[in-house]
Design goal:
Structural class of chain A: mainly alpha
Largest interface: A-B, 203 and 203 residues
Largest sheet of chain A: 2 strands, antiparallel
Number of helices of chain A: 18
Distance between the termini of chain B: 101 Å
Order of helices and strands of chain B: HHHHHHHHHHHHHEEHE
Shape of chain B: extended
Helix content of chain B: 55-70%
Radius of gyration of chain B: 31 Å
Oligomer: heterodimer
Number of strands of chain B: 3
Helix content of chain A: 55-70%
Strand order of the largest sheet of chain A: 1-2
Number of strands of chain A: 4
Order of helices and strands of chain A: HHHHEHEHHHHHHHHHHHEHHE
Distance between the termini of chain A: 32 Å
Strand content of chain A: under 5%
């Protein structure tokens, strides 16, 4: 068999490769699970609480404990009471809403499960496109007037009107595909009305109100942890912003959706989170809104990136910098004139794919062109390719010489410089003034097929890289075993195995026939 | 008499010069600490020096040396995608920094001669650091590489589709998985928010730095002035000494070995191709002259016109080839954010709700696919070549196998 050391090293290399593969698979599975969760229904845990779990859910929610159910019941009752009160107060303002008013009236919603640790601001993220489940006999589902009405005592109509105004703008800005969705959602609203963001926005308000400790300014009318939902879809957009402003104006300190609440545990009754709404991503994804704190941070961040990208070095700075660079470079060894090792590597990288590309051209040439023109074309093409090849060879030679001369000054780097080469080599000639370095790096795809092809290829390429690396390691380990000593008796089997592994990728075996003379 | 005048003149000039120098030293005033401070704040969080370190280095204080070695080590490791830990030995740090500076083309021999225990050389390191700011654009690279990831780097087609239209950033147009998950479970993403905010702070420091840059470079020039005065500039002899190092130095650098291996393989590939083309061209030429010889009288007139057209079209076809040999400029490196963009640019973009900040560096999946296909082909070939090598060697071994005949599959 294999000598111990060699076997150990080979096994170690293989194990490392397997480990990498397993790690990658785990990572992919994790991401896939996350994506699957996002693609499923987002409110599964809420729905399954009072009902037996539906099979499609991928959530791992625990069943609500009896205590939680009890709390739920209490809260429901309180909710009913409060809303009865509101109804009477708010009927009038509702009528003055005008055209959109009717859309907000009389919606039915399912109370949200409150996650008290979620500061109200997070509720704003909740896309107001919860699908209304009319006809469902859930105990939590109550018919109430639109939650926005709960705000009315504290907020004046102009704010609501502001929301109204914003709604059309947002709708228009949606792509044609989503526009269709909005209207269809409007159609499917169980109440037969199309819902607008304001409803959702006010839903947020209510939710905000429902957290007395966080929103002192708004909580009077909703002393309980009452969450009401606005059904239907919404063109989120500016409406949420308007609402958010109001929340701020109300003196509520938006501590960000990350603020922890002390009542985390009791919130269990309301579910794991204030889910952004019922339904799936497919139904309402277009109307989702990022949480305000994130949105703010994100837009500040992307503005800062943009400013940095467009920021140009002032003339003074360029002049001063150039003076410094010129002076310091006069102190360099004269070898500075040749390309630096980084540049050599970059040039080489550019040449790597040339043989493949040229081969494509060669293979594209017809073997035997029928026409005179075809013949001529073919000839010219091949001659052109020939020129290119010799140019590349010349360039390669220059690079070799450059590398040699640079290596004469190479500092003594022993093994531990290890993974020296930059993972992503800085592009040649790139100085600090290239704006593209700070541009948003986007990879745009236009169809699912493209995406699939892209990733299949990426996987294939990285697998090839790994195969090649393993091949080299195996060659270095296994071939010397066979080449070194005079072969022992049992080597035939070893030979067969190694031959199969190194030459056929382990897929086929050579046949070894005993050479016995029959005489 | 004239000599005296000249002497006075010279003295005046020298005095003026000294005055200017003093001015330069005085001028920085508040601007310099601000510039240095902004510079430090624009560096990545784990590699942020105290402004004092730079100031001490300017005066070549040995106490600043260790810190500066560490600073360069961490920064360069980040560029090179390498791993490092707090406990990496100073010897390793020094070796790596020296190698990386050589790699990027920094040619001051004094740096290579600094002691391996990191006990001296802070001023040299300051110079190297400043050089790095410009030459591979250290700051910008670090910013780009450590960019907070809010997007997707993997396949998440369906989620992109479903959330189209909802992102504030019109350029992106839809949410990433991370962002969608953020909406669903905001409590899991505190860290992301913090990272975003600290990155914004860093970017603002960068902008401040760009404003105050001139002062910094002037300051660095004074460092060079000092060194010139100290007679530091006479090392031309040493350069020659360095050059006389033995050529077998290649084996000490694994990076160089790798590069040499690549060059060898490329050379083999190209020469094989050259051989193949040589044959093909010879064949074609022969076939061509045959064809032409028989029809020469008939075709000559008409053909010269078409010939020119053919030549032009070939030039076009092969025009792309010359760019093949040049390194691709501004190729996108590193992680990109996946974005779904339908081929039809109409729709939300045209409504101009947001100023579309056209990111200049958007790469299409189709391009990447093409490149990957080429890469795949060349990797396949490489693998086949390796296997072929093995076959040859094993065949030779098989001949030595006693009493056994090997029949390859």
């Amino acid at each position: 068999m294999l000598p111990a050391g060699c076997g150990r090293r080979a096994a170690a290399a293989l194990r490392a490769a397997l480990g990498e593969g397993a790690e990658r698979r785990r990572e992919l599975e994790r991401r896939a699970a996350r994506s699957r969760a996002l693609l499923g229904r987002w409110d599964d845990e809420e729905e399954e609480r009072p009902q037996p779990q539906s099979g499609s859910s991928t959530e791992h929610e625990d069943r609500p404990s009896p205590k939680e159910l009890e709390e739920l019941e209490l809260l429901n009752r309180a909710l009913e009471k409060a809303l009865k009160v509101r109804k009477s107060i708010l009927k009038t303002p509702l009528e003055t809403q005008g055209a959109t008013g009717q859309k907000w009236a009389g919606e039915s919603h399912a109370p949200k499960k409150a996650e008290e640790q979620q500061v109200p601001v997070s509720v704003e993220d909740v896309p107001e496109c919860r699908k209304v489940r009319a006809g469902s006999k859930k105990p939590l589902l109550l018919k109430k007037p639109s939650p926005y009405q709960l705000r009315a005592p504290y907020r004046t109509d102009p704010d609501v009107k502001k929301l109204q105004r914003k709604v059309p703008a947002r709708c228009v800005s949606q792509g044609p595909r989503t526009a269709g969705k909005i209207s269809s959602k409007g159609m499917t609203s169980k109440q037969g009305r199309s819902h607008r963001t304001a409803a959702g926005a006010s839903g947020r308000e209510v939710c905000a109100a429902a957290e007395p400790q966080e929103t002192p300014g708004l909580s009077e009318s909703a002393p309980n942890e009452q969450q009401s939902f606005s059904g239907g879809d919404s063109a989120a957009g500016k409406n949420s912003l308007a609402t958010d402003k109001q929340l701020h104006d109300a003196g509520k300190k938006s501590s960000g959706f990350l603020a922890e609440s002390s009542k985390k545990d009791t919130a269990g009754a309301w579910g794991r989170s204030i889910s952004p709404g019922t339904g799936t991503l497919q139904e309402k994804g277009c109307q989702l809104k990022l949480p305000l704190p994130y949105r703010k941070a994100y837009s500040r961040n992307s503005r800062a990136w943009e400013r940095c990208r467009l920021c140009q070095t002032s003339a003074d700075a360029t002049a001063a910098r150039t003076r410094f660079m010129e002076r310091i470079q006069t102190t360099f060894c004269s070898l500075k004139l040749s390309p630096s090792p980084a540049e050599i590597e970059e040039e080489l990288r550019g040449l790597q794919d040339v043989p493949s590309r040229l081969r494509q051209y060669v293979e594209a040439e017809p073997a035997d062109p029928s026409t005179l023109q075809g013949e001529y074309e073919s000839l010219l093409t091949l001659e052109g390719l020939q020129t290119t090849v010799s140019q590349c060879l010349q360039k390669l030679q220059l690079l070799r010489e450059a590398l040699e001369s640079q290596l004469r000054l190479c500092p003594d780097c022993t093994g531990d410089v290890g993974s020296c080469s930059p993972a992503c080599v800085p592009v040649r000639g790139q100085t600090c003034d290239s704006p593209d370095m700070l541009a948003v790096p986007l990879l745009c795809y236009s169809s699912l097929q493209e995406l699939r092809d892209l990733f299949a290829l990426k996987l294939q390429v990285s697998m090839l890289h790994q195969e090649i690396a393993l091949q080299k390691v195996m060659m270095a380990e296994l071939l010397p075993v066979l080449e070194a000593t005079p072969l022992l008796k049992g080597s035939a089997g070893l030979f067969r195995a190694i031959q199969s592994q190194l030459c056929e990728g382990g897929r086929r075996f050579p046949v070894l026939v005993r050479d016995e003379l029959l005489d | 008499m004239r000599g005296q005048h000249r002497e006075q003149h010279r003295e005046q000039h020298r005095e003026q010069h000294r005055e200017q120098h003093r001015e330069q030293h005085r001028q920085p005033g508040r601007a310099l600490p601000a510039a240095v401070g902004a510079l430090c704040r624009a560096l990545p969080p784990r590699a942020r020096p105290a402004p004092d370190t730079l100031r001490r280095a300017r005066f070549d204080r040995p106490q600043a040396s260790l810190d500066f070695w560490k600073l360069l080590y961490v920064l360069l490791k980040q560029i090179h995608g390498g791993r490092w830990t707090e406990s990496d030995a100073i010897g390793a740090q020094v070796r790596f920094v020296k190698w990386a500076l050589w790699y990027h083309g920094y040619g001051r021999p004094q740096l290579q001669r600094l002691p391996a225990d990191g006990s001296a050389g802070s001023r040299e390191l300051l110079l190297a650091f400043s050089w790095l700011l410009h030459s591979p654009g250290l700051l910008e690279q670090l910013l780009a590489r450590s960019r907070v990831q809010t997007g997707d780097e993997t396949s998440v087609c369906t989620i992109h589709l479903f959330t189209s239209g909802s992102h504030v950033d019109q350029n992106l147009g839809h949410f990433s998985v991370t962002e969608t998950d953020l909406i669903r479970q905001p409590e899991n993403y505190k860290q992301l928010l913090q990272l975003l905010e600290s990155e914004t702070t860093r970017l603002e420091a960068f902008l401040e730095w760009k404003q105050l840059e001139p002062v910094y470079w002037q300051w660095m020039e004074t460092v060079l002035d000092n060194m010139a005065e100290e007679g530091d500039m006479c090392e031309s002899q040493d350069v020659h000494v360095e050059k006389r190092r033995l050529p077998e130095v290649t084996s000490c650098c694994p990076w160089a070995d790798k590069l040499t291996g690549q060059m060898d393989r490329l050379s083999r590939d190209l020469m094989a191709l050259q051989e193949q083309l040589h044959q093909l061209v010879a064949q074609r030429k022969a076939a061509w002259w045959q064809k032409v010889a028989t029809r020469e009288e008939l075709q000559k007139e008409r053909f010269s016109a078409t010939a020119r057209k053919i030549e032009e079209s070939i030039e076009l076809k092969l025009g792309g080839l010359t760019s093949l040999c040049a390194p691709k400029k501004n190729k996108m490196h590193g992680l990109c954010r996946l974005v779904l963009r339908s081929k039809h640019p109409a729709g939300k973009m045209s409504l101009g709700r947001c100023v579309s900040k056209e990111a200049a560096a958007a790469v299409s999946a189709a391009e990447v696919i093409t490149e990957l296909q080429v890469r795949e082909a060349s990797l396949q070939r490489e693998l086949q070549q390796l296997r072929q090598q093995c076959r040859h060697r094993l065949d030779r071994i098989a001949e030595g196998l006693e009493g056994v005949i090997c029949i390859s599959p």
